[in-house]
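The records we work with from here on pair a chain with its fold. Here is one such record, which you should read through line by line:
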Amino acid sequence: MLRLSLAIMAMAASMGFAQAAGTSLNVGMASADAGKLDPHLATSTPDAGLINWMFNGLVRIKPGKASPEFIEPDLATSWQSSADGLTWTFQLRKGVKCHGNYGELDAEDIVFSLKRAANKETSGFSADYKAFSKIEATGPLEVKITLSEPVPSLLGLLVPYHGGNIVCRRAVQALGEKFQRAPIGTGPFMFADYRPQQYVKLVANPYYFRGAPKIKEIYYRYIPSDATRDLAFESGEIDMIYGKQEQTWADRIKKLPNTKLAVIEPGEMSVLHLNMAQPPLDNPLVRKAIAHAIDKKTLVKFKGEAVTRESASVVPEGHLGYTADVPVYDFDIAKAKALLTEAGYPNGVSIKVIQTTLPGMLSIMEALQALVKKAGITLQVENVEHATFHAQIRKDLSPIVLYAAARFPVADTYLTQFFHSKSIVGTPTAITNFSHCDVADAEIDAARIEQDKAKQLKLWAEAQKKIMEKVCAVPLYVNMQLWAWKDSLDFGFEPEGSLNLSPPVTELTAFKP
């Protein structure tokens, strides 16, 4: 306890600022450091919420919600689409100012930003925009997007999430590589400072088009230790905390006085990706053995049934296109051992795994390691810092990848990014296909352009069946996002969900007097 107390004191001293009562928001995040703060390159959960507070999209999902049914105007005030869904025209809001001295946002900024998001050299999400055949400014405040093929839920690519975050052209051009550590957007909060392994500081944007924020500064603190982060929250050093994604944490925190707890949608689906191109995982019997060696119900109980639900398919339940009609691999150690023997490994197998030190994910890898060991499967785990983990798995250095992700809730997003051959890591069009799976390309491609909704759903279902039959990956569970905050903090809405996995802090957010 003394060590934790000293850590909190050091944390407070290192911040070097005098808190203005009621106007400074201190957030504790479960990460050792920031990743990339360029919204078109940032892929990790710890970065997503922070970035969301600095940027806008053409459209947005209403704050506090996560479903596409709540899409509303953001930088665009209105839009129209052609009957065939191939041409979209957006009218822009007038007078939106970029942070700093980078002028007013106009149609050329939107064109620049979307082209940048579609370029694999400048974006980690370029494949999402491959159907964008032309992006043009048709007026100072009008943008036209022409598609080469229909895109399922196009507006979902234009919300402030991943490539949909709109960057300011002049800032990107002026800052160059420095933009990754000093991002410029149009959102309610502006980047002010970054201290490695300590915090990112944001300040209120006084010219925000929806009105100046009531919160004047945000300190986004990097506190990887769950115990230290919890103590900082309990002692009042931080006002809002990213929780340990487990039921026991939720049960304990909600008993604290003057504290609110939220289970936020959408959940991140955790999937164990198996590299089908590397031995011994190139043998389907080994992949099936791993699937049978995993007791998903035990994992759900470990995380907590109130915050976790078991996954059946590689698309999360509740997302458009999800099907439960897929092959099932029941937990069966004897069967797993028999499959390994049939595959030529009667004495078991040993497989290297690179794993993040992010506490919630590390604990699950340790649980998986113990489970599959009973079947003769040894996971040789190398633990690395979270940003390093993301870099190394994208270099195809880990034959097994435990990956947790929340995406726009349409089957196409998950299937394309994780299971289409064009998304295989290490290739020019790489996204996050860690398994090298290519068995459902035809169905994924066909569903994307299918205009008949029933046929589209059937194609997505068939793709999921094929992926599960080949055991490209083992879907484990969906874990909701747990956040807690002091009850004096009022977001201005009920934080039921957030595509960026954290409560949106907007111009309405304030501390109650």
Summary: The first strand starts at residue 24 and ends at 29. Confidence is low (pLDDT under 50) at residues 1-20.
